Amino acid sequence: MTVQPEAPPIGRTRAEIAARVAEDLNDGDYVNVGLGIPLLVPDHVAPDKQVLFHSENGLLGMGPAPAEHERDPDLTEAGKGFTTAVAGAAIFDSAVSFALIRGGRLTATIMGALQVSASGDLANWYVPGRRPGVGGAMDLVQGARTVWIAMEHVDRTGAPKIVERCTLPLTGRGVVDRIYTDLAVLDVTPAGLVLTELAPGVDVATVRAATGAPFAVAAGVGETGR
Amino acid sequence: MIDKIRGSVAEALADVPRRGAMIAVGGFGDCGAPLALVEALCELDVRDVHVVSNNCGIGERGLARMLIEGRIARFTGSFPAHAEFLAQYRAGRIHLDLTPQGTLAERLRAGGAGIPAFYTPAGVGTMLADGTFPAAYGPDGEVLAYSEPKETREFDGRTYVLERALKPDVALIRAHRADRLGNLAFRLTARNFNPLCAMAARLTIAEVEGVVPVGELPPDQIHLPGVFVDHIVEEELIGDRAA
């Protein structure tokens, strides 16, 4: 009996996806980060950029998670874990928090996804039959100036999460601007999906095989490996 | 003389209807949640409650206890993640009005501000707006009622949904400091939905960590003016925290 050696892992780790998203943040941005890979993004922002992170329970200027002895039950983040406030942070009630979301003050919201369609439809809040919970996702996708998705390219069964049409309940229609995955970066444009970047060691054919929707390839991508 | 400080939790909760009240509860998870006041309501055998709150409790305290004891008939909120909630909702014991979090905050704010309804983009094009989300199940798992389809309207080329204000009978909230005029100050992110619940409700009861003399809270550091608050009780006088 011969043992097939496992294929070496390709593409970016979850932390590397977060680091790649952080590269695209600019000094002075106001950003909401959701659960999962997005929550890793603040750790990867270059020290020369001041990015203020927003937590929708009422905090602008969210800092890193506290050490155990510094936990304060009156200072938590949107996932209900303990957090900290950076110098200059501001705290406000939930109506003000969502006023700044709907009012277009967030440069970006970075979220995970269950499915994203070729036209930028997003499904990331509900699998019928499971726990119903929408949180602030529907407000964020309508209010933030840009919606970036940070996720694994395929689900746990290997099925594509980027699809022609979402089959799961939508969070919003045509709301996604950019998708960062372990394999690639894709933009959602009026003409459809465009592959703008490959993760190191990944080729276009690998991305096509893992993607459930057609996409164009931006000029120069796939020729140099990035 | 205005004095909203009550000497016992029984006095503070005396006017809460024992059956069928719509009760808004502040807090985000357990942060800023009036856990002791909610549990005091359970001790008073309050039932058939329509809870308005972002979450429906964590673990066994506060709204989680009210849920586990089967006292909740209807829930309006954004993230009822408790496993017991899913069980009771699917068994047809709780009617669910699932509401985006920002819409929940604004529905309470509007209720307190004399505004009956407003348009928001949140939920446009989703099952929460088009009336296809299961709001209530029957005992055999069949869907008895779907969410209300929401009116939509275009403004400047963009579609919005109409949302109604919430005007609860009662609000239970938690604050850091209070004075006898009812002025409240909250601490850090424990503020969240608390002032909004207080503004929306006809009757507001606050559990507070401490009471200070009138004048000690600087007027520009009062987060909720006392006009929105009816009864205040110090947390050490409530339930098991009195020990």
Give a verbal description of the structure.
The complex is a heterodimer of chains A (226) and B (243). In chain A, 14% of the residues lie in helices and 23% in strands. Chain A has 226 residues and is an alpha/beta fold. In chain A, helix 4 (204-209) links the parallel strand 12 (192-198) and strand 13. The longest helix of chain A has 10 residues, at 14-23. Chain A is globular, with a radius of gyration of 18 Å. By secondary structure, chain B is an alpha/beta fold. Chain B has seven helices and 13 strands. Chain B has helices at residues 9-12, 35-43, 63-68, 83-90, 101-113, 127-130, 194-200; strands at residues 22-25, 49-52, 72-77, 95-98, 117-120, 134-137, 143-146, 152-155, 158-164, 170-178, 184-185, 203-211, 231-234. In chain B, strands 1, 2, 3, 4, 10, 11, 12 and 13 form an eight-stranded mixed sheet that branches. The radius of gyration of chain B is 18 Å and the shape is globular. The two termini of chain B are 31 Å apart. Chain B: GO terms for molecular function: CoA-transferase activity. Chain B: It comes from Pseudonocardia thermophila. Chain B: Keywords: Transferase.
Helix/strand structural class of chain A: alpha/beta
CATH superfamily of chain B: Glutaconate Coenzyme A-transferase
Percent in helix of chain B: 10-25%
Overall geometric form of chain B: globular
- Low-pLDDT ranges of chain A: none
Structural class of chain B: alpha/beta
The CATH architecture designation of chain A is 3-Layer(aba) Sandwich
Radius of gyration of chain A: 18 Å
Looking at the overall shape, the CATH architecture of chain B is 3-Layer(aba) Sandwich
Write the CATH fold name of chain B.
Answer: Glutaconate Coenzyme A-transferase
The value of Rg of chain B in angstroms is 18 Å
> What's the total count of β strands of chain B?
13
Q: CATH homologous superfamily of chain A, by name? A: Glutaconate Coenzyme A-transferase
* Distance linking N and C termini of chain B: 31 Å
Biggest sheet record of chain B:
8 strands, mixed
Q: Specify the CATH class of chain B.
A: Alpha Beta
Percent in strands of chain B = 25-35%
Q: State the helical fraction of chain A.
A: 10-25%
